[in-house]
Structures are given as C-alpha cells and as structure tokens.
Amino acid sequence: MSGHSKWAKIKRKKMGADAARGNLFTKLIREIQIAAKHGGDPNMNPRLRAAIDTAKAENMPNDNIDRAIKRGTGQLEGGTLEEVTYEGYGPNGVAILIDAVTDNRNRTTSEIKHILSRHNGSLGGQGSVAWQFVARGLISIDAKKYDEDTVISLALDGGATDIKNDGETYQIITLPENHTKIKELLKTNKIETLSSELSKVPQNTVPISEKDAEKILRLFEALDELEDVQHVYGNFDIPDSVMEKISSQGS
Question: CA 168 to CA 149: how far, in whole Å?
Fold first, then answer.
C-alpha cells in the first residue's frame, strides 16, 4: 500500500487517544454535514452513507449524526462551511492533496501554507498534482480471520477493481459507486470490515527512504492535526519494513 493507506494505518498510534477522538469527531461531523448538502438520504448519497458508517464505527452518538445531516440539508442552522482542495509538494517532490472543510478559507490557506513551508514543502497551484490521483473506495478486512478466495469472490461480484493482501489485511479497491454495494455483500456474508472510506489513490508512486519517510510522516501528522483538514493524500511509497519500524516507535 502507498500514501494515504499507509499513513491512515499508523496515524492514530502517533496521536493521543483522547485528542485523536475529539479531533476525529469534529472532522466526521463536518464530513457528514458537507455530504448531506448533496442529499440527506444516505441510500441515494454514497458519500453520506460512507460518512455515517465511519461515524458509527467510531461510536458517534446518533443524535450527533442526525444534527450534522440536518445542518447539511438546511433543516437546522449552522455555520457556513465550504470544501477546499489544496495541492502541494512535500520532501523529495512527493505530491500532496489536502481536502479541507472550512468557514474561513484565508485562515485555512495560511495554516496549510505555514505547515508545508516548515516541513520543506510548498503549496502548488490548482491542477498541479490533482491529476495524479483518482477517487476510489477502500475497504480493509482482517486477512487472518477470513478465507482469501471467499473475500476475492465477493469483492469481484460487487465490482471491485483490485484486491491486495499485505499479509495482515485484504484491501479491496472499488469505484466510488460500488463501495456501498461491496460493503453490503461482505456484511451479508458475515465478513466484518476493519475500515472503509472513500479516498483518493495515487496512480503512480515515488519510492521513499527511511530518512525521508520520517520527514514526510511528520508533515502528514502536522497537516492532519489541523481541525479544518479532512484528509491528506500523498503519492509516496514506503517499504513495509520501514513503516513497521516507524509505527512501533509511535505506539
């Protein structure tokens, strides 16, 4: 796995549990609110469905979820939020895509630019790196609990574009429109998911050394800690042995 997938796997270990939960809930509420702007029925809105599922997996109370949906659809008053995507570069020319939700674009731009600069990165212009990423659904399953042939068969029946096995997890890669369908197929067949999200996947990756990996992950951590930042994606590829070493240091 590369970029966002590897970062997502260890970032919670690198943050304090209480701080991570508070920060996570804020991000999830904002994602639900933004997704609901495109329709409040999760059965007709795959992005909202994914956001709700993620929130429930993190034990967010249903009342919080319902309020976020109603703010998004305009049934309840709330702050005006807008989506902004930033494009930039990190150490070694790594392409970085940052999805943010903000009520003050100038503030968010300033904060992101400051963090990129402090970590030897830079903000790019519109279109500078976005072309390197494609929208995909990602579903992770514990590889030790389930038969590989069964998982592959169900994933392909649901329209998966790829299935990867790193020894610990199966990662099912889907088109966004097939994401919910595959999750339901797995659930019907009593296969639990470790994580599930709509993501942006790099089409090509840049190999990174151990020394540079630590720099890049520090940058990703700093960006992810910003309240306005929803997701950070990169096109880096770090060897599994290096990721395991960094992950154990952060645990």
Answer: 15
Q: What is the architecture of the domain spanning 84-237?
A: 2-Layer Sandwich (3.30)
Q: Is a pLDDT exceeding 60 seen at residue 147?
A: yes
How are strands ordered across the β-sheet holding 82-89? Answer: 122-123, 82-89, 95-102, 229-234
Nearest Cα neighbor of 224 from 104, 96, 131, 127 is: 96
% of the chain residues with pLDDT over 70: 88
Dig out the tokens for 18 from the structure: 């209480």
H/E segment holding residue 87: strand 82-89
Q: Which residue has the tokens 């943050």?
A: 15
Q: Where does 8-73 sit in CATH, by number?
A: 1.10.10.200
Kind plus residue range of the DSSP H or E element containing 53: helix 46-57
Strand (E) or helix (H) holding 68? helix 62-73
Of residues 232, 35, 220, the one with CA closest to residue 129? 232
